[in-house]
Amino acid sequence: MTTPSSSTASASPASSATSTDIKAPLWDHVLVTERAPSGGNTRWVCKYYNYNGYSSYTRVEAHLLQIKNKGVGTCPKVSFEMLTELRNEVQRCKELVERAKSRTVPMPTVPAPRDSSGNKKSKRGPVCALEKTWATQDRKHLDALIARSFYSAGVPFNFARNPYLREAFSFATSRTLTGYQMPGYNKLREGLLAEERAHIDRLLSSIKSTWHDRGVTISADGWTDPQRKPLINFVAISDSSAMFLRADN
Q: By its UniProt entry, which Pfam families does this protein fall under (predicted)?
């Protein structure tokens, strides 16, 4: 972690109407420059003071809320009014998290009970009727959890036909992945997204390499989205293939 430099930045009102992550709202008040793909420490820069940090969210909170003895320097540009707003924002997000927990709707199914004795039964021989019943019960509960995720997020039912989603479930059920947790919000929008974009760029590099010798034509067409906003698509066309470049609003 570097020490703050002598240069200062003008502080502006800190509160925001909606935090990106209600479990860690103060990430919105620092600039993330590098996030570890595995969910480790993050490199960040304070938006109100020229301070570079490399830590978890806990120290970001200590920096902005001026909590001492947390292994991070406090932000001298946070005034009393800003500190009050930041504390209110953190408290408001904590209440939203608790409120979301209290609104959890019970599932229509429950998973099958598990043997608490810890004795591992031999898998040799036919499966008993009770085990078949438990397996059916677990499948129904998993179906209900997947369906609830679609309904609660407003995901189109057509997404169930997504081949990558179905492949992900097939892969998970064919491997032993004890304790695996699906990627979270930050990992999906930053680490994994950057990896996917770099991978696609590598796949397209063979097409781009032909442009210098064979030439390329940039084509554009305009259309409007469901909100009647104009959009312009740009496509590169060559002998090898057509490649989407970008869409401008």
A: DUF659 (PF04937)
pLDDT digits (tens, 9 = 90+) for 161-210: 999 999 999 998 888 888 888 888 888 888 889 999 899 888 888 888 88
* Structure-token pair, residue 31: 């600039």
Sheet strands (E) in the chain? 30-35, 42-46, 52-55, 217-224, 230-237, 242-248
The span from the CA of 88 to the CA of 85, in Å, is 5
In 3D space, the residue among 194, 195, 207 whose CA is nearest the CA of residue 237 turns out to be 207
Rg (CA), the chain: 25
Tell me how far apart the alpha carbons of residues 223 and 248 are, in angstroms, rounded to a whole number: 11
Amino acid, single-letter form, for residue 166: R
Taking the C-alpha atoms of residue 235 and residue 243, their distance in angstroms, rounded to an integer, is: 6
Backbone angles phi, psi at 235, to 5 degrees: -130, 135
Q: Which amino acid would we find at residue 22?
A: I
Rounded to 5 degrees, φ, ψ at 220 are -140, 145
How far the first Cα of the chain sits from its last, in Å, is: 40
Name residue 32's beta-bridge partners: 44
Indicate the pTM of the whole model: 0.49
Instruction: In whole angstroms, give the CA distance from residue 223 to residue 231.
Output: 5
Residues 122, 117: Cα–Cα separation, whole Å: 14
**Who contacts 203 (Cβ-Cβ below 8 Å, separation ≥6)?**
none
